[in-house]
Amino acid sequence: MRINGKAAAPGAGTSGDAYLPEHGNGGYRVRHYDLDLDYRIGPNRLSATAVLTCVATQALSRLTLDFGEFRVSRVLVDGKPAKYLRRGLKLQVKPVRSVPSGAEFRVEIRYAGNPKPVPSRWGDIGWDELTDGALVASQPVGAPSWFPCNDHPGDKASYRVNVATSSPYLVAVTGNLVSRYQSASTTRWVFERPEPTATYLMSVQIGRYEDLALTGSAWVPETGAEPRGVVQRAAVPPRLRRPFARDFARQGQMMDALEGWFGPYPFGEYVVVVTDDDLDDPIEAQGMAIFGANHVDGRRTHERLVVHELAHQWFGNSLTVADWRHIWLNEGFATYTEWLWSEVSGGESTEALARAWYLRMRAKPADVTIGDPGVGRMFDERVYKRGALTLHALRGEIGDPAFFALVKAWAEENRHGTVTTAQFVTAAESYAGRPLDTFFTAWLDRPALPPL
Ligand SMILES: [Zn+2]
């Protein structure tokens, strides 16, 4: 059954996001995703059922989901077959009966196909085949490459993800592993992600990985002692085990340092995945970070990236931007955490790093306003470094006690929520005890670099 022709209700097929209006949809929010995936690695073949529990924010005669190029074999709304129509990266669904405003409803979609990443201005993003396995790295638009969703960072939901694949492979999903069943050749892995999570932060990692357990700063064998505190694990190609052990040996200390600055780690587990292939950049997912083989050399060359990705668990993942224009709240904090870590781990001082980066930023064209950089410059280096410099300048402006009280309260009070720059400015002013509009206007809303 298919819808004939007509466009969706106004607003139903757009999130209204100024940067990525084609991702995300109006009219409803998703509370929970239940994803059952069967994946065959050799042929890169996915057969799946997704059940979305949603709430209508207006009366809905139809709704739109973000979804990749899969063959859809069935769509049910509240158990009844619904009409549907594919249009580019959108799936329009027309229930038999309109959903009243405020009502909870379930959409079930059965689909199959060869998952492939979503083409974007930043390259191909999402579900990607590896030489021997698969990975998902979705920031910012890759989630529809593997499940139907409301692909907007402001619509966070809980998840249950069930993946069945060939038994010799290790599967890591952004969530707590709750069960694992092995039959002759297939293993079914079940993960639960109870915390509200943005679609772009959900990930599946499949490879011939060794499963390493890390508690505190010491490695223990798989059969070792009970983990205490946050469960920290890693999925690593066996050939990289030794250099990995050295490069990530201080992750437990980083965890302690970051909990000291930002309050309790937001999730039950932290899983590091190192793919056997090279990756351009490491990437954060919920309770997970993904590195390429090229980021591991046994000499801690990329330790700043280890702490950067860990910092995103607070800034980006627990506190998620309400829309993409606030991206400096993710990248500025993650970059500033690199500088804080450098100082406490015996490297260059935060002040020296800030001075050095200030000079480098000053030598670049002053044509980015980091409070609203524009979609083309969301991931510009200046958003990262000047974002960190903004925090360092704020620290100088309000003093260490107020600054560190602010960042801890910011992380704790907005835990598992969504955030905007305006909220951060309000929080900073309450810790400063005075207006900071001149300060923030200069740092966030003007392209010229203010004095440090
Ligand atoms: Zn980052």
Briefly characterize the structure.
By secondary structure, this protein is an alpha+beta fold. It is 25% helix and 32% strand.
Number of strands: 24
What does the largest sheet look like?
Answer: 8 strands, mixed
Bound small molecules, by name, code or SMILES, are: zinc ion
Helix content: 10-25%
Kindly identify the CATH topology of the largest domain.
Immunoglobulin-like
Strand content: 25-35%
Number of domains: 3
Low-pLDDT sequence parts: 1-11, 216-224
| CATH C-level class of the largest domain | Mainly Beta
Average pLDDT taken over every residue: 93
Could you give me the name of the CATH homologous superfamily of the largest domain? tricorn interacting facor f3 domain
Number of helices: 9
* Strand numbers in spatial order across the main sheet: 5-4-8-2-1-12-15-14
CATH architecture call of the largest domain: Sandwich
Structural class: alpha+beta
Cα Rg: 22 Å
- Can you tell me the overall shape? globular
N-to-C terminal Cα separation, in Å? 62 Å
List keywords for this structure.
single chain; 452 residues; alpha+beta; Zincin-like; Neutral Protease, domain 2; 24 strands; 32% strand
